[in-house]
Amino acid sequence: MARVEVLLPQWGMGMSEGTITTWLKSVGDAVTEDEALAEVEAEKVEETLEAPATGTLVELLVPEGETVEVRTPVAVIETA
Fold it and tell me: Is the pLDDT assigned to residue 17 strictly greater than 80?
């Protein structure tokens, strides 16, 4: 099994951080690539964080309401 870190992406050139407003999946949930994982507020715009791989969500590293910098690992997916 491989572990894939889910990083906070940079959706715009001026974006330096984002806030996880809502996790749409929980630890232990199966996810598929490009499936919505969380809602993120960045630069006062809501964006949807998508899964970079198919597998099982095994860790949420950032709680709802926390602001982190772009490229910060926010979750971990374990692939088969």
Answer: yes
